[in-house]
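Problem: given the chain below (152 residues), write out its structure.
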Amino acid sequence: MRMTPDQVAMLVAGIVVFVVALGLLIYCVVTRRPYKAVLFLFVIAIIMIGFPSIKSFKLPGGTEVDLARSLQAVEENPNDPAAKARLEVAVAQVSRQPNITPETRVTLAKAQMVLGRRDEATKNVKSALKAQPKLKVDPSLRALVIRPSPSG
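Solution.
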């Protein structure tokens, strides 16, 4: 596998940052100065050195962001099957989470409505409003709670 020039630059820069951080750490320990800030440089260096192999990095809460982005993509282009597939995956990921905030439940319900899952959306809206009654909810979603789903 050949590395691209930007990957080589990140590798070299990461090694330089690592060596500088090591020097600073030794200096701080010898002179008995605080070295917590220097430890951050090691994290940066490791990320830079590992850059070519890092495919993705998600912070906590990343699934909620993915859900919102996927929902927006489907709303902008409802006929895009790839966008709907990404939304399906995002809905599945968020649904598996044990502790979902009421705001995320509302977003999840909106996504489920877009995908045609009215019953699941209704449950999530009810759950969100039960946890936070004054939550700002789209009127079309709030209507799910007010009137029963049509029997079809």
